[in-house]
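Box 3.1 A note on notation
Throughout this textbook, protein chains are presented in two layers. The first layer is the amino acid sequence; the second is a token string describing backbone geometry. Keep the layers aligned when reading.
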Amino acid sequence: MKNTQKIVKFDVVIDGEKGKWTPLIESFPELGKTQSIAGGDKQLTSLEEIQIRFDYPLREPVTFSYKNKGGFTLSTFWEAVYSGYLVIYNEEDETAPVKADQIDRGMVMNRPKTDGKYGVWGHDMGDLLLERIVEVSPGLFSLSIGS
């Protein structure tokens, strides 16, 4: 059986310099650096509706649908991933009985586990890196997220 999965690795341009950096899910313009996706205007899919499965660092994986007229480029896909994680982290904070910022981290830098809608554990949103994506079937993407 032929493997039809499409795998895409992301590189980033920081302050206009292309390198072999992995893009952060959340960029930090207050640090004086700008980040963009290398080849961001490259067409990823011509499908105008896709689904992205988020499973890290979550206890409860979730799949969100996204629409974009004309399909998705690498940049518009990254923007969809960012907006998905923004929803996840915001809803986690809204639904967790005890918020992450209310838990003493002690000497540990990692984000404490919370028991909200998604059960986010181990990493703040700013820790996450979009390493690559896999199109597991037409229009359905899974993420390889590092930290």
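The first strand starts at residue 6 and ends at 9. The chain has a mean pLDDT of 81.
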